[in-house]
Fold this sequence. Notes:
The chain is mostly helical and 296 residues long.
Amino acid sequence: MKLIILLNKIRPQPENGNKGSDEEKEKNEEELSLGVKETYTVLAKILCLKPMLVMIVVLLTGKIAFAASDGMTDLKLIAVGITTDKIASRSLFLTPLHIVLPWLLGKQTAGPKPLNVFLWAYPYRLIMGVVFALLVYWTPSFKESSGDYSYFYYAIWMAAYYMQQIASYCIFLSMMAFNAQISDPKIGGTYMTLLNTLNNLGGNWPVTLFLSITDFFNRKNCVATGTKLILGACNTKKDEEMCIKGGDVCEFHIDGYYISVGICTIIGLLWYRIFYRRIKYFQKIPRQEWRVIKNK
Length: 296
């Protein structure tokens, strides 16, 4: 649904006076029929395009900044007693947002510089990762004696979540609009599929990486129940089992989640500084330079 709305917004509308030229352009950009071998050959050529080499790096590394926040925040909330149905309920009212935003950003994303929206939203997305970490840190202080959390707490989380989603969706819309502009219509959805695959891969591998390494940053102490007395470390599974078996509690001394969020944020700031001008330059590259099948 997101893709349909976006493509409808960015699709150019022909004028009556240019009917002949539009028909000629449509004929020139008629989709080619490619077999399996030809399709993979074209994909290889796309990947070897000079501007595409940098674009691949951007797509595969741009979401490292959000990996820890996206991959672990919900897990941390579940660990402190927030139920999964409460977490899932945040998404109930996202559909209107996903309908309204493409309409609001239509002029920017349909114009010659759709990536300006990306560059505007990226820092806000970084900030929201830090905000999420702070809210996770303060979450236990909102816990009531009954073990539940107040509606005020959920309202704060909802507001933060929607702000994060606005920034995230702006990034998505901007990149999708640019991908649609540079994609070669002669090879149909093959070009867009390749770009979307790279974009999705760039969002998945950093999450997997940080989920794997965050445990190395964790430091836990075995604390006597009802006291602050530290009985020893419980960083291994065996130590944790012995601590719990003795009736004590294994508590975080250093939580790797916050370290991971900090690392991701620093990487994101450096990434933004390094690629800002390059992403601006993408929009100045003639669209023909992104195509492997040149118009005659």
